[in-house]
Amino acid sequence: MALHPIDVIVVGGGHAGCEAALAAARMGARTCLVTMSLDDIATMPCNPAVGGIAKSHLVFELDALGGEMARNADATGIQFRVLNTRKGPAVQANRVQCDKAAYAGRMRAVLRVQENLELVEDEVMGLVVLDGRCHGVILRKAGNLMALSTVITAGTFLNGTLHIGKETVSGGRRGQTASNRLSTALREVGIGIKRLKTGTPARLARDSVDFAAMEPQPGESPAPFFSWAARRGRMFHVEHQRPEPVPPTFKGGGRYAPRMFHVEH
């Protein structure tokens, strides 16, 4: 596969990778985002929330810098709340529960129509390092991919390990493989790797829950949006040329979520 010369390589298609690729491309840099699965770009975790304590300010900062997460969350949110309203403003935070499929689908559409950005489905096997400087990456299928700058946002896939009961296996998420070769390559150039633990909460059988005994917790109205665009009442819509429809309405959004999100090019 022949790839044109580029300025920035971004490895990984999670939250950080999407923002890094969009930031570089929107600044005019020829950018390539490399991910092991194009279908899994912007896949949210088991708790599909954006914001919360210690994280919501990062979402606001991304929006102020022209990022996409705030707009994507506002466009695909199903419940909007401000946490800790009974306490002072220093510990209050916005949190949006998003539709997982809609969030990922819209973000993929944004990436695919972004000028200066190319998406590549491949695995990074190593780094091209010359004279102590990274000049690109080595792809499993396409070989060497050279660029002026390389950004690694591989996240939990780096040497990923899954603990299921007493069983421990290597893996990423939902049957995907871990990025073990890239982990080795980073160690070989002197970059240390440490593991952060996450935990999947126990699941409850829906038929075993007595919903009548529970107190509903609806979202707030008017919704506390993250993005300036949503707070200014803009309608949001993604124009894209490739056949990946973005839901025109989002399940459960009601009057809390904007219906369409418009991306200016």
Rg value: 20 Å
Tally of helical segments: 6
Helical proportion, percent range: 10-25%
Give the structural class.
Answer: alpha/beta
Uncertain ranges: 239-265
Biggest sheet strand order reads 6-2-1-9-8-7
What is the succession of H and E elements? Answer: EHEEHHEEHEEEEEEHH
Largest sheet: 6 strands, mixed
Mean pLDDT, to the nearest integer, reads 83
The gross shape turns out to be globular
What does this protein structure show overall?
This protein has 265 residues and is of the alpha/beta class. 21% of the residues lie in helices and 24% in strands. The protein has helices spanning 15-26, 56-64, 69-76, 100-113, 180-188, 228-231; strands spanning 6-11, 31-35, 49-51, 77-83, 93-98, 117-121, 124-130, 133-139, 143-152, 161-164, 167-170. The strands form three sheets. Strands 6-2-1-9-8-7 form a six-stranded mixed β-sheet. Strands 3-5-4 form a three-stranded antiparallel β-sheet. Strand 10 and strand 11 form a beta hairpin. The chain is globular.
Brief summary of the model shown:
About 20% of the residues lie in helices and about 25% in strands. It has helices at about 15-25, 55-65, 70-75, 100-115, 180-190, 230; strands spanning about 5-10, 30-35, 50, 75-85, 95-100, 115-120, 125-130, 135-140, 145-150, 160-165, 165-170.
